Queue: 2 jobs
Job 1
Amino acid sequence: MNPPPRILVVEDSAKDAEIILNALQKHNLGNTADWVRDGVEALDYLHRREKFAGRADELPLLVLLDLKMPRLDGLEVLRQLKTDARLRRVPIVMMTSSREETDLVRSYDLGVNSYVVKPVQFHAFVEAVSKLKVYWVLVNEAPPGLAPNGGPPATVDPLAIKP
């Protein structure tokens, strides 16, 4: 049996990353998450370069991508992922505090799968991340190569999960 697919969190704020990682564990569906701090690290992780050269050759089931980051922002990471034949099918959720219409439109123009504005309140932030995980891990049908054995990522009934 293959291990469950991983979720990649790309977030420069350690506080937000901790909230996201804890919220991802909330439903304990077996997925593990990896955290990188900026767009450069995200690309290194996905291309298995630099400190990630020894990482297993598996694509994440989902990438939660911050928009405003140092070194390389989320829009440029998104552009590079969606123009790469190996990575373009990996679902990308832009998680940002930006409500700017230009950021929203540019994200969708570049192929983002979802755009989520981070709630300010802690509880709402945790719930938003938990719901994202349930949707992308249980409800959404992953493309071949992102889910174990090319099938659905889990056999849990998503309607049985309580928010």
Note: Residues 148-163 have pLDDT under 50 and may be disordered.
Job 2
Amino acid sequence: MEIVRSTNMFSRGHKPVWIDIAARFSDDRDCLAAFLAFEAAEVLSGVKPSALINLPDRQRSCGKNFFSIWKEHGQDLIRESALEGTVLVERPGSLLLFLYDRGALCSLLDEKKVVDQLGKD
């Protein structure tokens, strides 16, 4: 998978969005892997323990339908990833994917203040 390199859009203060880099990935599987890495970048970099990613069953502006590609390649991508993941909800028109770093999530859930907050009604 190609690494996204710094370009003029980053130096102008423009925060990248998926469409800025989507054309770099013509293969469906690589495109989905790159999209998931883009959406879970804060998890991969250790800033957050998890990410929720919605995959609607429609063609994106880049021409790909990630819902369909997930159905074909999703489980293999997760197995090959540094992250773990599961589909939390699947509806006829979309699915909600939960990607997480097990160690970071477990550490967070071991914190007393987090446990106290989750235990509140």
Note: The helical segments are 8-11, 18-21, 28-39, 41-44, 66-80, 102-109, 112-119.
